[in-house]
């Protein structure tokens, strides 16, 4: 019994380490991509494998990121209490979870068809590569965006068996949206990044310019999603959802005006968590009405 409680405690620490609940950021967009590619009978099994692929991909990426950054996290007062630098879990346990996540993602890719299986190594490279980009480029935020942004196109491919233009616009929006909110998140490490030579847009350009770049990214995101809806001939509910998501992004930028870090949790966690579900719900209503 004690051993079981020990392992459950470690699992809880591991899931908390990667903020497992934040899978909600990218998962709705993967399902939008899957819905947009779905014609004919609903492929329930494929949707379950898309879900498995998303969970595996994000768990792998975040766990590897924590392992790769353990030295920086230990030196940064904001992150020194995380599970790995604080010693509550070991590197060995983190690698175990990364291996399990990689196996889940690889299995899901094979189950989803020949093209997803062929593209899986490229996805692995993107998912793992992001974690080292902050060591040499300020555009690490765009690489994080790419890591999340491949999910809608990946889900489209899983359902349709091919890449098509609407999925690329949907993914472009996710890339720009992610880069925008990650720049905001990086504001809190501005001084530390300057001291340690860690690359980020706030460290490279300063806080006012970084906020402007973030705003441009979110504008690009809204435009990209609008093009996706146009290509899909979307109806009222999908456009209403996009308008609501755009309003959320405007609110996020307004909250962070001037770079006030007291508002960062509200902007990054609270507001961002509504963007994906809002767009998914609107597109789901459009899709259901269209099929009816």
Summarize this structure briefly.
By secondary structure, the protein is mainly alpha-helical.
Q: Can you put this structure into words, describing what you see?
A:
This protein is mainly α and 292 residues long. The chain has one domain: Tetracycline Repressor, domain 2. 79% of the residues lie in helices and 0% in strands. It is built from 14 helices and no strands. Helix 2 packs parallel to helix 8, helix 2 runs parallel beside helix 14 and helix 3 runs antiparallel to helix 8. The N and C termini lie far apart (52 Å).
Keywords:
mainly alpha, Tetracycline Repressor, domain 2
Write the layout of secondary structure elements.
Blueprint: H1 2-17, H2 27-37, H3 44-68, H4 70-75, H5 83-86, H6 91-111, H7 114-133, H8 140-160, H9 165-186, H10 190-196, H11 201-205, H12 207-231, H13 236-255, H14 264-291
């Amino acid at each position: 019994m004690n051993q079981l409680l020990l392992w459950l405690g470690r699992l809880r620490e591991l899931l908390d380490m990667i903020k497992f609940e934040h899978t909600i950021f990218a998962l709705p967009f993967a399902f939008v991509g899957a819905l947009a590619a779905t014609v004919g009978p609903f492929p329930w099994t494929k949707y379950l494998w898309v879900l498995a692929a998303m969970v595996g991909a994000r768990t792998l990426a975040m766990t590897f990121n924590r392992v790769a950054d353990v030295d920086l996290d230990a030196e940064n007062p904001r992150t020194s209490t995380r599970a790995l630098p604080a010693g509550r879990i070991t590197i060995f346990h983190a690698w175990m979870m990364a291996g399990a996540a990689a196996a889940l993602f690889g299995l899901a890719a094979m189950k989803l068809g020949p093209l997803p299986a062929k593209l899986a190594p490229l996805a692995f490279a993107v998912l793992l590569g992001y974690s080292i980009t902050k060591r040499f480029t300020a555009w690490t935020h765009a690489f994080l965006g790419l890591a999340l942004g491949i999910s809608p196109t990946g889900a489209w491919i899983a359902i349709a068996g091919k890449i098509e233009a609407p999925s690329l616009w949907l993914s472009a929006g996710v890339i720009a949206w992610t880069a925008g909110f990650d720049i905001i998140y990086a504001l809190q490490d501005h001084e530390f990044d300057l001291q340690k030579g860690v690359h980020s847009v706030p460290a490279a350009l300063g806080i006012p310019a970084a906020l402007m770049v973030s705003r441009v990214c979110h504008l690009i995101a809204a435009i990209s999603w609008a093009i996706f809806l146009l290509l899909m001939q979307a109806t009222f509910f999908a456009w209403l959802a996009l308008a609501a998501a755009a309003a959320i992004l405007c609110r996020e930028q307004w909250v962070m005006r001037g770079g006030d870090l007291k508002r960062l949790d509200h902007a990054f966690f609270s507001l961002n968590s509504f963007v994906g579900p809002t767009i998914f719900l609107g597109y789901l209503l459009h899709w259901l009405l269209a099929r009816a």
